[in-house]
Specification:
about 190 residues, mainly alpha
Length: about 190
């Protein structure tokens, strides 16, 4: 059960939050050159999805927190308490609280319309604190092998980014379609 909840959190993190960060940058570039109502509708829908994903993330994160605590041994519980409230407590709490609060701030129209804030939010959605720590420590001289190579091509990077954006836009379109269908059904009754 814990693994399933962790998988759902991973999906929300990677396929929604990171994809929304990438989408936001593309949206801001496109909306600067093209003024179209459809683009604004897509953006409104994507903001609704991210706000909802933030609530789902919060609920699953809290349930995973309690489930992990109550299903662990005494030694694991003390380690978990130490991580949560110890010397580096901010590393445990900062990222989830940041994602949840940013996703809920996007409910406000004043926040959604400010381009600088959206760029800052997209950076925070795309880069996690955990990833920054892993990257910084992995480039420490003691951890690097003598022959270090990074075999990640530019094409793979572009394909990965486009895949995330397309997946996010498919979710946005499905949500938009279902919302429209639901409204038409409710209006008929």
């Amino acid at each position: 059960m814990v693994e399933n909840l962790d998988l759902v959190l991973q999906i929300i993190r990677v396929d929604l939050f990171i994809a929304f960060g990438l989408y936001t940058i593309v949206y801001l570039i496109i909306s600067s050159f093209i003024k179209n109502e459809i683009i604004n509708v897509i953006d409104e829908t994507s903001n609704k999805i991210i706000s909802f994903a933030g609530i789902v993330f919060l609920l699953i994160w809290i349930s995973l927190l309690f489930k992990s605590y109550f299903e662990s041994s005494e030694f694991e519980k003390s380690g978990m308490i130490q991580r949560m409230f110890g010397k580096y407590w901010f590393g445990y709490w900062l990222q989830p609280i940041l994602w949840i609060s940013l996703s809920q701030l996007l409910r406000l129209k004043k926040v959604r319309k400010q381009k600088i804030l959206r760029i800052i939010f997209s950076i925070f959605f795309m880069v996690s604190i955990e990833q920054c720590i892993i990257i910084l420590t992995s480039f420490e001289r003691d951890y690097l092998p003598s022959s270090y190579s990074f075999n990640f091509t530019f094409i793979e990077l572009i394909i990965g980014i486009l895949t995330k954006i397309c997946f996010f836009l498919v979710i946005v379109m499905l949500y938009f379609y279902l919302e429209k269908k639901l409204k038409s059904i409710l209006n008929k009754t």
